[in-house]
Amino acid sequence: MKKTLIYETLTIPDPSFNDDQVKMIGTWHGMNNICAFPTKISRKTTSKTSVKNVDNTERNIILLKHKSMLFDPKVRQLVNESSSLFQELQINVEDQNKSTDALYYSRKYRAILSTCIIAIERHNKDKLDEIYNQYELLLRNLELIWHLCEVLYLVTVPGDTILNNLLDWIKIHYEKAENQASMIIDDKTAYFTDECVEDKFPFYWDTIFGLVLQGNTDLVRALLFNHSQSKTEPFIQAMKIFKSMPTYSIYGGLPIAEYTSRFKGWQSNAKNKLECGIFLNDPNLQDLMKIICGEPDCTNLIRKHCSTWFEYLVAQLIYTDPTVKKHNLSLYAHRSVTNYYKESEYNHMDTLALDLFDGDLEAFVKKLKSYPDSGWSSTHLTNLLHLCDKIEPEFGISDATKNSNPNEQYLLDYGTFLMTHHSLWQAGITYLDNCSDVGKEYLSVLLSKLGITSHLRTTKILHYATSRRLHNVVSSICKVKGMLSLQKSRLGEALFWAIRGQDSAFATRLGDIFLKEFVSSGQFSCPDILENLGSIVLTCDRFMFIGKYLEFMKLVKQSKLSEASSLYIDLLRSNICPKYFRLRLLLDVLMFIDDTNECYFKTSEVALVTMRLDDAIVEYEEINGECTDECLSDQICNIRRGIVKLLSISFR
Amino acid sequence: MQNSSTYAEFIGRKVNKVRWKPEDLMASTMFVTGSWDNENDNVLELWGLTSGNGNSAIDFPPKLLDSKEQNGDVTQIKFLDNKFVAVSTDSGTVKLYRIIGENEAPTVHLEEVTSWENLHSYGKKNKCACTDLAVCNYLLATIGADHKLNIISLNTKQVHQVVEEISSSLLTCVCFLTDTQVLCCNSLSQMKLWDLRVNKSDITADINNFSQNQMAIGCIAQHPSQKHLIFTGSEEGDVGVWDMRTNSLLTTMSSGDPSSITELAFHPLEPDHLFSCSSGGKLLQWSSKKSYLCQIDPGDLEYSNFWINTDKVKTKLTVNTVMQPICDPINSLDIQKQQLICGADDEAVYFKQNLNL
């Protein structure tokens, strides 16, 4: 029993479907579109009576098109660039000499994403195009989640102290505070004119909070130094505290225990100062100190300065548990997400991130599949994680699909999806190439479904099919092209396609046309091809005959009659001559009668000619001259006369 | 420091042809691309590279200067001189464009000068592809899927001569051997030479059996200094060297890749270097120049006969890849001075400076 997988459910808000008797029927239209239309089902018993009641209500046929972000001209570079990187990765994996550094490739994929984002930004500078704004947001979120996955799973951290990596992640994606800070610091006028920086820039304190929550203490100190009150005691003290904050670095040589005690010491020192009331004069400074002391009552304060719970999570960790281990993150993540949202309504991004923090890569990958990027991210990320053995090759996938490998399943889906595009089909081939035998089956079906509109496209498709040994595709395309040429009565081209596809049945048919044309007009068309038939003579008997016959004609023309005669006898003896052409061939015996009275045939050979003539006459009478020319039958007497003459010469 | 890395720019359409705008003295800063297989949205685009800081280094990515819609896949682009460019499409049209306003950078654009519609058609109605065009001294030769050869005079902008039914199978490429001789190749690896002076045009030479397998000749290139040497690229990845004085095949060279060669081009000033690109995504440089690593043969003072001497071709020719192979077909390439540009089916234009000549 096979289960049906439901990928997506759509509702079509068309009034004509709102009828109990109406059923919706859909058919595939092209490779990627579905036509849906309403049909009124009337029961058989009533049908006789209701024939006259013609239903006049207007019904629409609805065309469902798969529209994807990836097909936008600006986003297409994402598809193309990633397909070549994907190919490079697959090749390097097979090569034992090259190490596959998953981190390196993950970063490259992210670089491709950012290039694409930049291209969209450049195109949509004033942010007026709503569609591009949406695309940009989607891609940015994707990069954020990809980066998180990279930080948690691909970067190796000795001792699993993950905070520094998380900080890098946050700093890259939430750069607002840093940009504002550099704006404030770069502004020199305030410095010279005694203007208060905090008054000039209303976001001064917001910036400082933002930076503190990203652990960027150096910039915080620089900003505090620019404050008009920076020479006063509270500011000096605050800067001193920030300066003395111990930072943990994996390669710094400090053991975790040692670092923790130093951090605790620094924090209690700061707490002492806070409790002494040094900062009471300035409420902002007071709040700042509360945050860095890790006071439990300042969570609301932190929450106010964070735009997402990702920031909130990391910000809390800096001052409460700086040496947090990877496996503890799950708890913190769930706690901060519930704290951050008032209601427990998580969006797609939240669940994706939670899966990552929980260490449930399988669930993550499955959810990523429904991200609205037509499977770009799930395909590439799953493939990457699969290749570096982060996910099991077979995790619980439904039995509906033939192959249990999700990596392969995603590749198949994505490849098939790309193949439906009029221009990106070549990129799709790359993905289908990498899914073992099933991919090949898919390819052979999809390649032969591609439209063969232009010659250039046809040659490209043939190139792909030939190099993948999909001979059925090659022959079907050649047959279609050949028939099209034949319909336009372009024999030469049709023959070219028959040769290209090595299609002997089609070639036989063409050969018949050539021969019949010769019978009626005495001339072959397309002499340039017929003189150079090449390998088609080996696959098709008809062309073997045509080739030999042409050779015979050539010899006769050059009056090399003795060679011609032996070829002639060979032709008769082998009996490869088609029936309708036999009399025409026998007529050629007259060419050997000339004034020199030279003997070209042995008696036995003349007997063969006679025998063949008798056969031909019998056959001719059977079909009663339906397909042979009338004048040819008149020639029978001439042939007989010729044979007699030849016989008389041979006896001489 | 010499910068020898390759740059890529994705332009959102598959590139079928790419050509540098010729410049006499300096490295060219403009090129045109023609796209294919993009439903009804195929274009000819003019791109400009901005020279950074007056250095010789040219900045990539290029800037799109102008774009002209075409009514079909662009099949060939040829510059007549440094202003005029001829473009053929697979709907049987050939158009002539002029690049205007080069010195005032923001207004550089393409202007259509002439358009020859329906040069190639089956009967009166059915349009068919113009597969290739060639240019020589104000003569334009076009061939099409209707097995017709048109000779257009660029002085009068009129079709000057029409030769019908020159081949029974599809014509693939065309090339002027001299002012008056046109060489056509077809998809059954046959080459035909036409003399335009003969009143009733007739085949002067019919050259066959390029290979046993009857694979199409995909592209053709003429040696820049020894005009009688013709190089053909086949669909099976072989390059054939022909001597048109004797109409004979001198030798064939294998590119080591069974995919078809899509374009062959000599360096216009350094004829010792031949470049080829293939459907397998490889870009090769075939150098006949004597390498300093090779032992110098005292009797070998002259290279001019390099290609004639088959043994030398077999032993002294060096083949190098110019850039990292890509997985999609490279459709076109062009070289100007020390810079190379090529266009591929992954919708990218690749640019490489400081070629190793």
Automatic annotation (TrEMBL), chain A:
Where does this protein come from, organism-wise?
A: Cinara cedri
Q: Read off the Pfam families from this record.
A: Nucleopor_Nup85
| Top-level taxon in the UniProt lineage | Eukaryota
Family classification: Belongs to the nucleoporin Nup85 family.
Q: What is the annotated localization of this protein?
A: Nucleus, Nuclear pore complex
Q: What is this protein called?
A: Nuclear pore complex protein Nup85
| GO molecular function (one) | structural constituent of nuclear pore
What keyword terms does UniProt attach to this protein?
Membrane, mRNA transport, Nuclear pore complex, Nucleus, Protein transport, Translocation, Transport
Its quaternary structure?
Answer: Component of the nuclear pore complex (NPC).
Q: Name one GO biological process term.
A: mRNA export from nucleus
Q: Which GO terms describe its cellular component?
A: nuclear membrane; nuclear pore outer ring
Please describe what this protein does: Functions as a component of the nuclear pore complex (NPC).
From TrEMBL, chain B:
Q: Where does each WD repeat begin and end?
A: 210-252
GO CC, sorted alphabetically, is: nuclear pore outer ring
Q: Which Pfam families match?
A: WD40 (PF00400)
Q: Looking at the keywords, is Chaperone present? A: no
Query: InterPro entries this protein is in?
Result: WD40/YVTN_repeat-like_dom_sf (IPR015943), WD40_repeat_dom_sf (IPR036322), WD40_rpt (IPR001680)
The entry's localization annotation reads: Nucleus
Q: What's in the keyword line of the UniProt record?
A: Nucleus, Repeat, WD repeat
* Classification via SMART domains: WD40
Identify the Gene3D superfamilies for this entry.
YVTN repeat-like/Quinoprotein amine dehydrogenase
Q: Which PANTHER family match?
A: NUCLEOPORIN NUP43 (PTHR22652)
The entry's protein name is WD40/YVTN repeat-like-containing domain,WD40 repeat,WD40-repeat-containing domain
